[in-house]
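pls design
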């Protein structure tokens, strides 16, 4: 079975996040198809609603291939 051609859209979206320096991680979180998580660090000039609009504009989300849930994640500890 060949991959769904709509999957090229999230790949391009993740690449654009990487190129902006926002992408922290993107990966499957279970062995089930279609379950994953993307972690981004976005600029202070944006808010969570801006990021949600960006994510929902992905053609793979619009077409129903993927669904998206945007949640804030406040980092309280970091390694040095």
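designed seq:
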């Amino acid at each position: 079975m060949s991959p769904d051609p709509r999957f090229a859209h999230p790949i391009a979206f993740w690449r654009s996040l990487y190129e902006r320096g926002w992408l922290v991680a993107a990966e499957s979180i279970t062995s089930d198809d279609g379950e994953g998580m993307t972690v981004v660090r976005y600029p202070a000039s944006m808010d969570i609603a801006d990021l949600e609009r960006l994510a929902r504009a992905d053609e793979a989300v619009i077409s129903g291939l993927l669904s998206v849930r945007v949640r804030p994640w406040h980092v309280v500890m970091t390694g040095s």
